[in-house]
Amino acid sequence: MGRPSSLSRRAPGAPSRRNVLAGIGGLAAAGALAGGVAGCAAPQALSVGEGKTRLRYWHLFGGGDGINMQGMLDAFRAEHPQIGLEAATLQWGAPYYTKLGLAGAGGRAPEVAALHLARLAGFAPGRLLDPFDLELLREFGVRPEEFPEGIWKRGAIGGKQYAVPLDTHPMVLFYHTEVCEKAGLLGDGGKLRPLEGAQAFVDALRAVKKVTGQPALVTETLGPGVIGPWRLFSTLYSQTGGRVLSEDGKTLALDDAKALVALEYMRMLVADGLAVKRVDYPGAVGVFNNGKTGFYLNGEWEISSFLATGLPFSMTRVPNLFGRATTQADCHAFVLPHQDDRGGESNRAAHAFVAWMLQHSVEWAKGGHVPAYLPALKDPAYLKLTPQSEYRTVVDDVVLDEPAWFAGSASPMWLELGAVFSGVLTGSRTPQNALAEAKKRLRTLLDTRNPFGDSRNAAGGASA
To answer: Stretch 198-213: mean pLDDT, rounded?
Structure first.
């Protein structure tokens, strides 16, 4: 995985819109090389009926998420016949963010869009994004105090709210209930008994391996665009109390001793035969789905894969192994891409849409995501969702990347460090070598200019 070498070094002064456009073009090239994608098709708009307020919404949700999103959009249209909602699904990852950035830089963007919250700081709020009108959100029934404080603050830059979180999608622990029962790991109600501490988790893995004769844990360890190893490291490292970057995302803050605790634990899992050593993303899903292992570490969105096959499984939070019950995550959020003439009825419609989506996010939670809108977490309909509601308390302990332009979902940091830490799991790198290489690559990213321009970064810390 190459570094984003097409991006120029940091230069003094705020860039012009032409320079922003040029920088986004460079990012598109880098993203295509890193992610194996070449671009995305233009969004297909629906015609707006006469007398309706036009509302364009861009998002990147496919698969099970796409099905759930479509159902919500259809319901919104039915309840708001006066709004002509045009929804466009664009290609996930670098192509999506490139197209959204170009639209914002040109001032011809949709009224509302989805964005990963950890990418906000690098997306030039104030230039490529417009702030929300909090009074308008209140008018439609949504207030800042109805969100976890840390997640809400990550949407604020320079005293203005540029992102409103829809959910958090953390790394969780899937477990095969029949296998774990045979291993003696289930307690009351057939739920996994709490596993506290690194040794307790190892003991559980050994108990499962004794039952199956196979490695007890599977997670993505290799493949094109591999990011699973980074997400595993981020989870374990955060539990030691370490952070990757400074709170403002501008300097390196890796703690060598704490990072080696996480990396050596990762290496031990495969070296001792407790985790599958060489498996790509689809392969990891298949291994767990075939009942060949007891545990699977990944984002909660794969719930749809296992519900579809009828696998006997459940889900819980990643165990507290190193002192803090934190886990790696990002959040889907709504943003207002920059429009030169934002305002009027279309802007009201955008705020009404965001509020309605939050107030109906129990439907969104069916795909595994934890609602960021706190009233949804208390909704009886959500509490009845199993296993989706089993790990809801993690909303207070998710750890997002520190605010840097190169961080967040589908980011250069995930790709760069995913490739480095993959070697720890497959045996091609020692933990010490991986740490040194990770620091080298992070320094290169820190020295590389943000292609979207100065974000005037004032977002909160990494732990939400």
So the answer is: 98
Q: Name the nearest CA neighbour of 80 among 339, 333, 355.
A: 355
Q: What is the mean pLDDT of the chain?
A: 88
Residue 395's Cβ-side half-sphere holds a number of Cα atoms within 13 Å equal to: 27
96's CB contacts (< 8 A; 6+ apart) are 40, 58, 60, 90, 410
What is the pLDDT, as a whole number, of residue 39? 29
In tens, the pLDDT along 233-248 reads 999 999 999 999 999 9
Output the DSSP codes for 381-428.
HHHT-TTGGGGGGGGGSEEPPPS-TT-STT-HHHHHHHHHHHHHHHTS
Cβ partners under 8 Å of residue 8, min gap 6: 23, 26, 448, 449
Say what the pTM is: 0.87
Cα separation of 113 and 106, whole Å? 15
Distance in angstroms (rounded) separating the CA atoms of residues 60 and 334: 12
Tokens 């598109």, residue located: 28
Give yes or no for residue 46 having a pLDDT over 50: no
Residue whose C-alpha is closest to residue 156's, from 117, 128, 127: 117
pLDDT at 377 over 80: yes
- CB neighbour list of residue 149: distance below 8 Å, 6 or more residues apart: none
Alpha-carbon distance of 256 to 455, in angstroms, equals 29
Strand-pair category, 167-176 with 313-317: antiparallel
